[in-house]
């Protein structure tokens, strides 16, 4: 048994030694360099006519990109912001959003497709192997590297293909215009932005016809007796079911409802307002953080603090949701509530200030 085992081991050692060649010092030599596959010439490499055809194809893509960008600008101003269209498999969608998304997507896609086609048909595609070297080369090598870059630009035929250079510059330049138009037309106008933030579905509530508070997402009304001390409800206005732009309206009208012991409110003006706008310790505040608009949904029952999960802004529910920590600069807007004849919680009016990020003075 021992002899047989020794013989097998010896055989294994010999087989292992035969599997590679030893270099100096008994160490195996490096694997041979397999080299690079032979370069396959393209039509544009051997035919100036083929290169011209590729140039026209690339320029066409860039030109179509410019057309899509111009259509974006036209759609931005021409399409009614309340218009809707039906999309198969999706349902009703805002016509302006669809138009802007399609035109901007086409513009960006055609820029990318033109650049890829340019690289595959006209730019050099030979593979080059360069050994690693010391990070700081000598001046001669650095000058040589600059020369290689300049030579690469020459090989990419930028100088010889002015049509590509001009069309690419136009496509990239025009593609920036949609962002300029949106900033100048919407975000750049504080009055326009504020009017959007000031308007929520709660504005339909009046003293004569108050708006019921309903659970999100069930849509069922809430009675005051359902809200126990320490509990939190995610609330929407009852008319959310009739909204044609549910996501937008829900984003602005979302409310957090909670109940505190009335003795826990801080004395003074802030605490008085919290209680007078609430009902027997039940208070309702906008769910949208006044920093950058993240949903504030983390409630610490013991400290009565509301936390924003994005940037840790912290609001004090006992002190009119004033900011006690984090980057937010404004308290959460409070929604005034009461009860109707059936005991359901209702809002007799909308928010008295814009909801969401406080980029503008309120």
UniProtKB/TrEMBL annotation:
It is a multi-pass membrane protein. This is Cytochrome bc1 complex Rieske iron-sulfur subunit. GO terms for molecular function: 2 iron, 2 sulfur cluster binding; metal ion binding; monooxygenase activity; oxidoreductase activity, acting on paired donors, with incorporation or reduction of molecular oxygen. The chain crosses the membrane at residues 58-79, 99-119. It comes from Lapillicoccus jejuensis. One of its GO terms (cellular component) is plasma membrane. Residues 252-346 form the Rieske domain. Residues 1-52 are annotated as: Disordered. It is found in: Cell membrane. Coiled coil: none annotated. Belongs to the Rieske iron-sulfur protein family. Keywords: 2Fe-2S, Cell membrane, Disulfide bond, Electron transport, Iron, Iron-sulfur, Membrane, Metal-binding, Oxidoreductase, Respiratory chain, Transmembrane, Transmembrane helix, Transport.
